[in-house]
Amino acid sequence: KGVGDFNKDEFPLHAVKLHIWEGFIFLNLAGSPEPFEKVFAPILGKFKGWNLPLLKPERRITYDVQANWKFIFQNYNECYHCPPVHPQLARISSYDSGENDLIEGPFIGGFMTIDKADSLTYSGRACAIPVADLSEEDLQRVYYYSIAPNMLLSLHPDYVMFHTIWPQSPDQTLIHCEWLFHPEAFARADFNPNDGIDFWDETNRQDWHMCELSQKGVSSRAYQPSPYSPREALPAAFDRNYLEHMKD
């Protein structure tokens, strides 16, 4: 205002590429991004049977974690630590169950089985009706996938949990965790979302504590990295993908 020869068209807001995938909004701030369909090709239609765009949110919890964001991804992508750190999880889902089907690139993960229970809840019972018309196999599995650079997607038979990762500094990360349920579940008398949400809230906090301890460890002048275990193939794959992007 007050500048006579100022042309707003010459000073526009920066355009941002946007794509909606399975109900989630993805933004790409790159100047010349690759087509979304090309980047997301490995998982483009992978979760269509889970009704993700139709699910409704029940709760969001935000965590302020004093650790680098990469520790969050590394922690999520292995369960070697689960028996000593997550006794409530290890009781109904063994750390060595299941298998990985995406093992390289920006999207990695697979499933773990639910043993002697219907879902990952404190009671072991499902806390809601199934999120979709799932197969008998999928009713006994939880699928875990990290979607670089800042999403973790966990598909349970009766709810979907996802984390979004927001680095604040080299040693601080904000994490938003949300739980989604079938829209018809909310009106049912047997809807008990806290059984699953509280289960994972405790598990999340256990994980963040481990990440914070790891942050303190690598900050020590005595720190020396060591090799990954064969059970830690996905953290190694995450590292390779990250290092590849750092070359660009």
Low-pLDDT parts are none
Q: How many discrete structural domains?
A: 1
Main sheet strand line-up: 3-9-8-7-6-5-4
Based on the coordinates given, report the CATH architecture.
Alpha-Beta Complex
**CATH top-level class:** Alpha Beta
* Count of helical regions: 6
SSE arrangement, N to C: EEHEHHHEEEEEEHH
Radius of gyration: 20 Å
Strand content: 25-35%
What kind of sheet is the major sheet?
Answer: 7 strands, antiparallel
Give the tally of β-strands: 9
What number is the mean pLDDT? 96
End-to-end span in angstroms?
41 Å
Q: CATH homologous superfamily - what is it? A: Naphthalene 1,2-dioxygenase Alpha Subunit, Chain A, domain 1
Helical content band:
10-25%
Structural class by secondary-structure content: alpha+beta
Briefly note the CATH topology name: Naphthalene 1,2-dioxygenase Alpha Subunit, Chain A, domain 1
Shape: globular
Walk me through the structure:
The chain is α+β, with helices and mostly antiparallel strands. It has a single domain, classed as Naphthalene 1,2-dioxygenase Alpha Subunit, Chain A, domain 1, CATH 3.90.380.10. The protein contains 6 helices and 9 strands, in the order E-E-H-E-H-H-H-E-E-E-E-E-E-H-H. The chain has helices at residues 36-39, 69-76, 82-85, 87-90, 193-219, 233-246; strands at 17-21, 24-28, 56-65, 99-102, 107-113, 141-147, 151-155, 160-169, 172-181. It has a 7-stranded antiparallel sheet with strand order 3-9-8-7-6-5-4, covered by helices on one side. Helix 2 (69-76) crosses helix 5 (193-219).
